[in-house]
Amino acid sequence: MLEVSCDILKPGMKLAKPVYNLSGLLLMKDGDMIYSQNIDQLKTNRVDKIFIQWPNLESVEVVSVIKDETRNKAIDFVRTSMTNTYQSHILEIESMRTQVETILNEILSHDDMLLNLTNLRAIDDYTFGHSVNVCVLTLILGTTMGIEEKSLKDLGLGAIIHDIGKLFVNQEVLNKKGTLEQKEYDEMKQHATLGAALVNNLNEVSEQVLDVIRYHHEWYNGAGYPSGLAGEEIPMAARMVAICDVYDALTSDRVYKKKISPQQALEYLICMGDRQFDFRLLKQFIKHIRIYSSGMMVRLSTGEEASVLSNNANWPTRPLVQVTTDSWGKPVKEYKVVDLSRNLGVEII
Ligand SMILES: [Fe+2]
Ligand SMILES: [Fe+2]
User: Fold this and answer.
1) Residue 112 pLDDT class (50, 70, 90 cuts)
2) Structural domain contains residue 63
């Protein structure tokens, strides 16, 4: 079985697991052959990844960070709750806390804190999926740092509603395809303070939750907004969410830009190092994320396709792979194993 991104899916492949849409409706069954119209249908339903059969490859058990069911329920909840907040200016904070606790309990049930992020986005729904993804990523980061559970819950709550202020920003500005004009950019930037004011006015929440909402766009070098705080002046919770927020935004399709690969997103984070982010926290984030899961199909710069065998914890963008098809797309007779950390001329594209 191989995990394949719908971007590199080809007609003729056979499904190894059923595929569901965002509402949980079955789109294709286990064993179904994939035709080009199915690829279009999967993309229309914003399915990002599926599992296909592949001869003579051992079956791999891909462990997700959180179950699809938990993630989809959380997204549904956030969607309904945010719609209510928009209409009534009331936020059901206690139910939101329950969602965060469910996610946290699942994360804490894993022994392996090198958690697989590749399944985070089985189905894409940016507006509300982003809130849930940032919550999951922040909770993983916090867990690997040994932060105590009570504080993790507040951190997760802040993360899941970090962009709540966007409800009160003009949708045309938020979804504008081109570059924002200064006036529009100023309006968009207000979401941080608007969000914090809303939550502060309506609910009993800790300072940590408000810090995340208010300061998640501050930069470590002081160039961010709304207050231009720098370094340790920025509360740690906000510095953590800032990393997870940018990582998720970069790896998501938006109306105004295409997503980039996890590998390119990591490169961006590293390049922005201690200008935008707290570099110590960034190193912790990078150390604990696994951007390729075993059994995932990737395309190499040689034109060949390969299946990921194992990750390299010291160099997450260069796993051990075995080549499954040649550069003409034909399945190879014998699988060649390539260690990308030793073959620097070859990369995953
Ligand atoms: Fe934001
Ligand atoms: Fe965000």
Assistant:
1) low
2) no
User: What residues pair up with 299 in beta bridges, in sequence order?
Assistant: 305
Separation CA 10–CA 25 (nearest Å) = 23
Residue 64 Cα to ligand 1 midpoint, Å, equals 26
What is the Cα–Cα distance from 343 to 37, expressed in whole angstroms?
37
Kindly state whether residue 145 falls inside one of the protein's structural domains.
yes
Q: Is 34 left (phi over 0), alpha (psi -120 to 50) or beta?
A: beta
**Confidence class of residue 71 from pLDDT cuts 50, 70 and 90?**
confident
Give alpha helix (H) positions in 25-92. 36-44, 68-88
CB atoms near residue 3 (< 10 Å):
24
Ligand sitting nearest the alpha carbon of 245: 2
Q: Ligand 1: distance of its center to the CA of 157 in Å?
A: 14
Q: Which residue has the tokens 């006036």?
A: 183
Report residues near ion ligand 2: CB below 5 Å.
Answer: 163, 245
Domain-located, residue 202: yes
Identify the band that residue 126 occupies on the pLDDT scale cut at 50, 70 and 90.
Answer: low
Quote the domain boundaries for residue 24: 1-53
